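Can't paste images in this forum, so I'm doing it all in text. The chain is below; anyone willing to post the predicted structure tokens underneath?
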Amino acid sequence: MMLNSELTSRLDVIRATNKFAAQTLDRLAEFIVNAPEEELFRMSPFRYAERATISKATAIDLFLYATHAGILNFNWGTICPSCGAFITKESGLRWLNTHQHCSLCQLEMPAALDEQIEVAFTVSPAVRAIRFHHLDELEFERDGFFTFFSTSVSFHPEVHHVISASLRASYRIPAESVQDLAITLAPEHYMLMVPATHAVAHLPINESSSIHEADFELLFDGQLIPETFELAPGPGLLHIHNRSRQAILLGLLCEKRMAPYMPEQRAAAASIYTLTPYLTGKELINSQTFRDLFRTESIPPAGGLELKNLTLLFTDIKGSTAMYDRLGDFNAYALIREHFASLRGIIAAQHGAIVKTMGDSIMASFTDPASALEAACQMRQQTQTASGEELIIKIGIHAGPCIAIETNEQLDYFGQTVNIASRVQDVAQAGEIVCTEAVYHAPEVAAIIKRAGLRAEPDQALLKGVGNPLTFYRLT
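Text version of the structure:
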């Protein structure tokens, strides 16, 4: 295995962190050097974990460190729930705060970071050049559908055959140029597809129409306009103006031939492909490694991003004021830092992340209630510091929808779910975990409570900022 100097030096940066076994990094290097180009485009850390026989958590961290070292690049995209297209733009995470539009399905999708956003990775051209870095090297017949759809989508073989047979012609349009395409159109519907930008224009053929020429523009943001243009059958001429700074692949496909598999057949569409597990945007932003390494990959300040369900955990130290009086500011602060380091390790082990610290309190996020409660149980037991000082904490947990936002150039959360999680921590007593019904009744939570030997007592109170009395459970 021959490594180029760029890959070697970047791997050495990761080795210096001592985060990964030498064998793990050697396998990654071998994969990058020897894998087929298709496997290095929009890679899933989950698929790589199976290949390298490592845990998914290790694979995610490995890919994040490799991205930070310039070995891989992020690919953020919305997966169309109807056709499986990977809708993306170069601006990545910052672009996801807008509603997404699937041109193929003519479907509008809200911006949500839960299951709809896939985070994939492509090898950096600095360590290995592959044809997917250069659109003018791609071929529509070979690469068109591979780049249009998510690599986590698996179509049934029959669908591949039908889609391939629907292709009537393909063209390469140079950057910032105009091309005239002479075509002959039968009395059926067609579509123009630009895989690299997920642009699609529909061409219904109407025998009563007298129009034989159409003008289309590919804009800088990858949009193909207009999205629909009615033409007459017979000889036709398409004027394609590529305003972007990159060459594009353009395919002319027969929509009629694809009709049985088109996404408007909603019931059938769900059965023509399967999704293998992939890294979601929600999972990634709940990674402590992501927060540590990519502080600049933040949510745009305008609008934020919707999370349909997130679990938030707040902690506070009971009697911290008295501790500061007894030990003095310097010694007390040293204990708080030690305490935070301990909690950080517990949270990261449960695939959560510290959102922020506030004095002697922390706010943490998790993808699910069970992980948050598991972390809370371990935090509750971790009361002794290295100096022998005992720190008693109280914990509140709530789950629900919220908005991911940017505050002080950091990823944060906003909404009533955040308020309730904070308020239930306020009502907790020393050593208590207080969780809401949304957490208490979540999957696997009952088993964790039983395993930890906790007793659950229901309670109810009118919390500040919450209109109606809230039912919660005290776990002691």
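The longest helix spans residues 329-349. The two ends are 56 Å apart (CA to CA).
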